[in-house]
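Instructor's aside before we start: the two examples that follow are unrelated to each other. I chose them only because their records fit on one page, so don't look for a connection. First example below.
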Amino acid sequence: MSVTLESLATCFQGLLPAQLFTCSADGIPNAAYLSHVEYVDSSHVALSYQFFNKSRRNITENPQALVIVLDPDTGQGWSLRLKYVRSETSGPLFDRMALRIEAIASYCGLKGIFKLRAADIYEVLRVEPVAEEVGSQAPARQPSANPIFTVNALQTFSDRIHQADSLESLVDSVLRALEETFGFRHSMILVPAEEKDVLVAIATRGYPENGAGAEVRFGEGIAGMVAEARKPIRISGLLRGTLYALAMHREAQRPEAARRRIPLPGLANPESQLGVPLLVRGELVGVLCVESEMPYRFHEEDRASIELLGSYLAIAIQNMLLQERSESPAQPIADAPAKPPAMSELTSHASRMANPRLPERIEVVYYAADECIMVDGEYLIRSMPAKILWRLLTAHSATGRREFTNRELRLDKSLNLPEWKDNLESRLLLLRRRLEQKCPHIGLVSSGRGRFALDLRCELALIER
């Protein structure tokens, strides 16, 4: 081949649809669009086998095929003369292609419908430019990171990880470094929630709201797919892939398919996404996702760098949690009344005098059966962070205490925290950020490692229902 497959790496990102041409034994041609052309090695590619029954029959009769791919940077078209070799229905290659297809389909609420039936392996006999698709000479893509830049960038991340003195400073500094070093403006870190197979966002960057508390189930969107598969996913041309999935769904005429769209935390219409699992010895610590409205924003160099960063970050998060657990013992929180007074008043007069715009009183309602807190009729938070906040408020109501420690929360039997892997620090971080976003009248202020204080800026009416 005069042109190598390696030089056409940008053509295999799925940003622009490829075309597959086959011919039956009696000479009847057939054309179809492909959702995925995967690079295998220097002389082979893999095509996704999903719905193209006519193409598959033609290949059975005549194993020759032609695929046309387009370079998204230059617009140049390339024809690949192929010969069918074999089909794979399992293994790393099949898993990688299936994961990408499932990730795109999940945005349409169609997860599980677009099953990859096989990865068809073809030998590439010849590569030629397509005369009808002549591209520009100047590539449009942004320059990728050179090796020196990549090493320097990872050194920057390493320094910030070592300088972090809390989980909050760790995740915030890493997301900030992603923007300052790589230019990735939209990013988030999610961790496993108390509920099985659910992720919750604890840190985001680049979005109008901080996003703390946004939940994603395993298998939903790129974050959920990464968590479920525990493998990195890089998607370019996400919008085109989504539209392709919707079009194929209508063509397949599957009335039993789910049609709801899954809410996507972050950008409404991302064109490029990159997600990596944060793993420590096979245990899922979290998921790191970056996204962009720019097509083909994340290149292979980016994926490799972020995947390496993710391995460092996972260890750092786990070490931070273990370090927090190693505090000296403390006494459990003093018991509050079994049923707090319906109008128990908590107030910080100094805060209210400093900011006269704060309301005189807000109503905080805890729904025990649902483990949910509402503030003045609006949802604040649920699950373990809600239980923690209610315990703090009722303890203050009973004893007047404002200072607390992480250790005493762990010793508090009413919270039913697991003895190990309680993720208390991430729950407190989530609670603090939800309060900043939705209820600034109540604050959790750090007063040292493993210590914090309640900052109440108005009167609270505590009600349990």
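Example two begins here.
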Amino acid sequence: MWWQYLVALAVGYLLGSLPVGLIVGRVARGIDIREYGSGKTGFTNVLRTVGARWGVVALAGDLAKGVVPVVITRLAFDEPFVDMSAGLAVAAGHDWPVFAGFRGGRGVAASYGVALAMNPIAAAALLPVAAAVLGVTRIMSVMTVGLAPVLAILFVVLAAFDLQPWAYAIYAVVAAALVVVLHRENIARLLAGTEPRIGSGGDPREAPADG
């Protein structure tokens, strides 16, 4: 029924809009995390700006934002396309949060949390690969931009073999596309060889010039 999708969209977007990284920045250092580093509220910027301990807190919060709405809709409605709606709404809420002036993150951890709730085994299977890529490159965006499409392909293959609903595959494809698009500045820096590695970045952002 149509109202199930409406509930899923509302729950997903509102929970996705919880600005975990922004809250962590306020608590840890009394700063607006968006005025530092990449200007985003996600795990990577918290890690660079506030430190590893608080970065883990932000990561856990963003993952939970993805997991909880899908679990709620699955228990309440048991309809994969409703779960998909909630998941996409989570990504939208994290990227454009109503509780933080529509200035959020790039949706990596929150979107992965959704995937983890949809298919825990498949999503978790990519963690060693992600860790290996990160260990070799020491560049977070290489891991995130590279692994999001891989997860999408994996979900499509699983759906093609009737091992999970097609709704979950559609979610993964759309979420991966959104992650890549929102990382276009990172991709440009990667091509230019100027993308910061783990441990660097996190400096105050320059104010825009007048005019």
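The longest helix spans residues 52-77.
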